Amino acid sequence: MAKAKYPHNSSRPSPQAVKKALAKGDMDALRLALSPRQRAFVEEYLIDFNATAAARRAGYADNTHIDKQAYILTHHEGVAALIAHEMRSREAKLTAADPDYVIKKITTIINKETARDADQLRGLELLAKILGMLKDRTEITGKDGEAIQVKQIEEDSVALVNLLDQLSKKKDVVLI
Q1: Is 65 inside a domain boundary?
Q2: CA gap 40, 71 in Å, rounded
Q3: Would the pLDDT of 9 be above 70?
Q4: pTM of the model
Q5: Are 56 and 5 in contact (CB under 8 A)?
Q6: Which of 4-13, 32-41, 58-67, 117-126 has the lowest mean pLDDT?
Q7: In Å, what is the CA distance from 70 to each residue of 61, 79, 87, 168?
Q8: Cα dihedral 164/168/169/170 (nearest 10)
Q9: Cβ atoms of residues 84 and 76 within 8 Å
Q10: Same domain, residue pair 104 and 48
């Protein structure tokens, strides 16, 4: 039988500590209330969202019941709350980059004394795009690279109306 990666620790808080931490919304207390293996499961689960693999990597016994253990862990109220909290905090970190941050980072790279010319030119190009100084243009051509013929319907219809008007003024022409 394999030795557990995280042996049982009788000095850790009781399941009531999980309920108290959840009631207060204190995620640090909740983290302390969970066992080391449960905390490891949360971290491993956030990598690929595969509960069975996360349980295996967290040190739970790799036997035929690992999928059952993974199911139990994902439905444990403390573990589920910590997973949800970690996912929200990671999403917040992803959206924390604002335009000012990007511009500051680009200018930092441009102004470095050790920056290569290519890095500085690329940074300047990005700044110019952000500031709207450069416009992306696309050229569309017809067959064999020729210019596309565009019919101007409005001008043609005006010319047709003028022609009909002139013809209607002549006495020997009858318009049907």
Answers
A1: yes
A2: 15
A3: no
A4: 0.49
A5: no
A6: 4-13
A7: 11, 11, 18, 88
A8: 110
A9: no
A10: no
